[in-house]
Amino acid sequence: MSRLMVVVALALAGCGGGGAEQLLDPPATSEGFQLNVPSFEVAAGDEVQNCYFFAVPGTPGSDVWVDHFKLAANLGTHHLNIFRVKTVVDLGGKPGDVVLSKNGMGPCFKSSNWADWPIVANTQDGGQTIDWPLPAGVGQKFTAGELLMLQIHFVNATTQMSPAGGRGAVNFYTMKAAPAMEMGTIFATNQNIRVCPGDTNRTYETHCKTPLSGATIFAANGHFHSRGNQFTMNVVDAQGADTLTAPFYTSTTWDEPPMARDLAIQIPDGGGVSWTCSFSADASACGNPSDSCCFTFGGKVETQEHCNAFVYYYPKVADYSCF
Prior knowledge:
The protein folds into two domains: about 1-180, Jelly Rolls (Sandwich); about 185-320, Sandwich (Jelly Rolls), CATH 2.60.120. The chain is mainly beta and about 325 residues long. It has no helices and 24 strands. Helix content is about 0%, strand content about 45%.
C-alpha cells in the first residue's frame, strides 16, 4: 500500500481544499465536500485500477445527508465507483491511502475483497461531468468519519484508450435536514460467465432477491466489457420470476453504458432485480490461453468479462450485495 497526498475538500470540517489540479470545482464550504483523485499515468498497453480511501468529513459520529452528486473522470475512464468500507479482507486503508493495482493484478482488482461494501454512486462516462440530483425528499445517509473507497479504472490498450491518463473527482452536496426517505443501493455481479472464441450472443441471466417491501427503483446502470452485446434489467417477484413485460433498463454500449435516472419501478414485496448479459467473441480472440482462450469473470478489460448491475432505490431497508 502506498501513501498518497490525495486532495480532499473537507468542506464539512471547515477546511479549504482543491489544490492546483481541479477536474471538477468543489462545492462551497457550506454546501458539501469533494473526493478528488489527482492525475496518474496510464502507459500504453496498461490497465490501472486504484483504490483511494477517504473519511466523510464532519463532527465524528454525526449524520451527514447527501441529496446530490457530481461525478467526473478523464476521457477514457472505464469506471469510477464509490463504496462504503465494511469487512476488510485483503484491501483496506486509512484516509488518504491508495492501493495501486495494474493489469489485473493486485487487491484493487479482486472483487471478493469488497464483497459486502455497499455501492454509493458510480459513473462510466469519461470526459464529462455527471450531474445527479436525487429525487425530491430522498437522501443518502453517511456518518462523519465513515470510511469510503473510491475505485477508478483506466485502460490504455486495444479496447479503450486513456491518453490523458487518470483523474477523477466526486462532489457530495449535503442537506440541511434529514429527508423523508433514505436511499438504498443494490450492487450485483454474475461471476458465472464464460465467453469463448466464436460464441455469438451467449447469454447469462441471474437475479438478486431482497426482503424489500414498497420499494421504488429510481436509477440503474449496467456494466460489462467489450464482448458485451446487450445488458438488460427486470424486476423479480419473491419466487425469482420476472414481472415486467419488457426490461426497465437496456444498454448495448459497453464502454459508456447509459445510466437510467428518473425511474419509478416498483419492486414486488420480497422481490428484487434480475439482469441479463449477452456476449459475442470473435473466433480469433483470446482471453485466457490456459482455458481455451475463453473470457471469464474478472476486472481486466482486455482478457476478462463482467456482468454487473448497479441499482438505486428508496426507501432504504439495507444496502444489498449479490455476488
